[in-house]
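Internal ticket #5521
Category: modeling
Description: The requester needs a full-assembly model to guide mutagenesis choices. All entity lines are attached below as received. Residue total reported by intake: 1188.
Assigned to: D.W.
Attached entities:
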Amino acid sequence: MQALIEQQEKESLAAISSASNDSVLREVRLLYLGKSGLISRMSEQMRAIAKEERPIVGKLLNHWRSSFTQVLEAKEKIFRDQADALLFESLDPTLPGTTRCQGSLHPLTLLIDRVVAIYRRLGFAMAEGPDIDSPWYCFDALNTPADHPARNEQDTFYLPDGRLLRTHTSTVQIRAMEQALPPLRIIVPGSAYRRDEVDATHLSQFTQMEVLCVGEGITLGDLKGTAEFFFRELLGVNTECRFRPHFFPFTEPSFEIDIRSSHLSKKWLELAGCGMVDPAVFEAVNQKRGDHAYDPEKISGFAFGFGLDRLVMMLTGIDDIRMLSENDLRFLKRFTGEY
Amino acid sequence: MKISLSWLHTYLKTTQSPQELAETLTRSGIEVKSIISTGSNLSNVVAAQILSSDPHPNADRLSVCIVDDGSAHQRQIVCGAKNYHVGDKVLLALPGALLPGGIKIKIGKLRGVESEGMMCSSQELGLGSGASGLHILPAETILGTEVQELFPSDTILELEVTPNRPDWLGHIGVAREAAAFGAGELTRIFHTDSAAACEHLMDTASASNCSSGSMKHTAVVAIHHLPCHHQDSRRLATNQYEICGLIEKPHISPLLSHQDSSAPRVMDAHACPFYSVRFFDLIQVNQVSSLLSRRLESIGVRSINNIVDIANYVMMETGQPLHAFDAKKIQGILTVRFARQGESLEALDGVTYHLRSSDLIIADEKGPQALAGILGGMASGVRESTESILLESAVFNPTVIRASACFHGIRTDASYRFERGSHAALASEALERATSLIKECSQNVVVHEVAVIGSLPAATLLPLRYDRVRSLLGFSLKDEEISSLLTKIGCTPCEHGWRIPSWRLDLTREVDLIEEIIRLYGIERISPRYFSIPSESSLADRRYDGMMLLRRRLMASGFCEVRTSALVAPEVSALQTIRLRNPMGEEQSVLRTSLLPGLKAVIEHNLCQGAKGLRIFEVGKVFVKCVENTSAQEESLSLALIMTGEAESSSWRGGVRRSLDLYDLKGALDALLPGKMTYHPSVRPLPEPMAIAMDLFCDDHYCGYIGCLSPEEARKFMLSGQDDVLIVAQVELTPLLQALDHGAWKKEGPLPIFPSMTRDLAVVVAKSISYHALEQALLAQQEPSLKNILLIDIFTDPTGEKISAQHKSLTLQLTFQDEHRTLTTQEVNMICERMIVVLKESFDLAIRS
């Protein structure tokens, strides 16, 4: 028995070394280590031999099993390594990567999202309003005189029923105050319309962002802090803001904001209009609400508005606004990531 | 609005450079659009006199002149201009001169005749557009004077003036603002008797008006400039800013007996609250270049003649428009009234305007002589033959002027100013200013008294609470500091607040004064403040977030977002479209009812640019006219998608190239809201002609349709000739956003712990049997352990060898799983057998193994 085992062990190790490939080796493994392999069968014969011989035979068998397994696994690893090497040997890592077709978001969407994120950080919520609105919301409530040129048929789109397409998103200031009590902090991205001849710098439909903050004790300092924070977040910490006195019917005092940022250009760029909400606007809201929730003696606020199309143009370095409405995919595909 | 700096310096003593001054004005709120250097700094261009002029021997159009350039040497010059006479003085560029545009003057021959220089037009010297032909100098010009002495160089500032500040529409107003902002000191602003006269005028006029109740009638109030004995005059006199006071020694003419001959009538005091006119006799009208005309030309106002120039000069100086009528052409009394039906006016621009009853006019007995505040009439215009004039200075209602100017499509310097507002005090003074200028240039003139109708309004008095100023502006300035800011702009403290200077029509409320305070103080000195109070997220927030999520999912599915205009061309559509009353053109005359037409145009554009495969979408508003008694919304959010062309771009991996089809779009919609979208054969009318269409449901709410556009329809607009199928979907966003809102954090319990088992089931059915029918038949058996059905293969054989050509083979992978135990192979096999039996009962079907 002992001799047989030793003989078998030699044969089995020879079988491993003569195995030329992985599949032959697998047969060898099966032959010896399989459920009904040679080593198992020899182990079963243990019952037939004398009790005192059993430890010796058992030891031999164990030795056989462990040495066979060790050599087999070493050989298997050689074959595996060879196969693995072969797999990567044939691979040209410089071949271009393959990908699924990439989509993109419109640059205006990306900018709106960025702006929304900044204002949310400051505690603003969103608000919305209709594109079709009445002259009251678009002009009267915003302290615009009855004969103001902006109301002209040359400048504003009207529907046959006398309503109009809003010329600015400021209409939502009124709608928001009409619906909610102060304090109120809202942002409104949306479309506005003006009867401009479409050219490199004008679209008849454009995109604006309205910002309104109303409450007790809101001061010009809050407007300044908010505007500066916003532009620095958007354009980098080195962005400079300049406030220039200006005129808007619905704010008093009113300013235009010029921005200078290494991100854009070395020149001052006129980017936004802003101001403290005119008391007449609060009075119009009160009249509509039928209460004194927005008593200008107690409540103050600031409003802030800017065109997103122009900002996108500056950020992307395009000089024709029509690229934003032309929707050429060669242009749009540039905007696959986040702003 | 253009400002000449040399002109401005007449009123403003400043050491600021043009750039610094522009900076000052910008700080005050006057936007400086450009800074242009003008005038001449040319050398070798001198005044010369034409001594003789003979025809050129070889050229009909040229002449040969002998000129005296002030030196001993007489020069022979060949000239092409015709507008001169022998003896005229002109500008001569000598050899060596370098003219604008790089033209170098040298001695040379023109058609065989030598020319020792060039006589120039104002344009050739960069002195403005001017009339064509040689620039003729005044006779008194000294020969040999360099052009830079005759036309000193100047800087022109182009300003953008906001509509609330008519006082900035004249040089004096700009000077005043610059001074208030520290640019320097005002000069030549002194108090005159005219201020007192105005003050007097106010009292008498308002007294007479109050008694009669209204000025609507033909009350003629002729007020004369008499020394004023008003008790308040001393205080006024100390306030040098009260009136812009230009006139050094106002002319106080003797009372005229025939004042009624020029006394006007005003029929509507609301439209014309103040009207003054002065008669000038024995006037000389000429067209001589003067400081006035040169200054006007420098800011782009064409010089006409001395009288018109004076009117324009005073307007550009003070901001108050004046109008001169040829008095001989006016018959009877000048009347300010609204036009009558059928009246028309041939205006100075040569156009005949048909007047409406809302057009305010200045008329005489014959009819309209001017469109009030806008444009004078041709017939009564001042020309060289004019011997006497009526010079008008008035205040018109801005609304009336704006409506007329807008209706007739005229925009003049006068209407531009009247639309923004004017003041009686300024009107009176501007007339005085013009009077003294006319007297300077027309020596024999007889100046008659001013006839005035209307009153000088009382000065505005505004209260101001200093605490209010501090709380709104967020600073802690002392009362005295605030007061000193306001005095800078000419406000004077009075008992109940502040007295506003007459030229500040825009200061009518406390908050207006607060704005002035911050403007003068400078917002740059306000410290920024940050607050941080949370805001509850609104419905708009949730909708916005939902839309961004959907957009990002579509981007991940390979779609590009586009944005198209809401204004589109009208289309034959079942839906009610909303039309604009005043569209820019037919192509943008209605509000879109669907996003698809816009997307189709984008597809066409990109195919023309050579795109091979396209996946695009838009999220935007669509508009439907609301019919009464329906709950339909006028504006709603919509999502539309189109895909066409190659499914994948070429790749070195090769593989099967295929075109995008309906299933790609269905997959994209499924990925948008996994497990929520269902499709049913279309039963609704579709706005687009479709070859095949399915209705789309989200959480069982109808939300649109998906399908393939009819190829015939596609060919109609796809001029690019590409004929891949267009797969489109039109989706209402509200149900999707609701599904997103409800779908988050849905509880689905723990993961299954027992293994699942799959079986592939290949069935052969007639081609007409839909997949949906098979799936429903399997689901209808309500087998609890059947967890999923996955279609993994479709096989057809057109040759009929493997399966009949009328049949198809579908391979379904069924997944079975039990929550409480491991299913056995036998069990699963039995379930499958059972299902096959039921399927066979429902369909004529064979099982392939």
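Resolution: model delivered.
Comment from assignee: Residues 52 and 167 of chain A are 106 Å apart (CA to CA).
Ticket closed.
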